[in-house]
Amino acid sequence: IAMLYPELYAELTKGRALSLKTFFIWLLISIYQGGALMMLAVWLFDTDFIHVVSISFTGLVLNELLMVALEIRTWHRWMIWSILGSLAIYVASIWVLPAYFDVMFILSAAFVWKTVVITAVSAVPLYIIKVIRRIYAPPAYAKLT
Question: The whole model's pTM is what?
Answer without folding.
Answer: 0.76
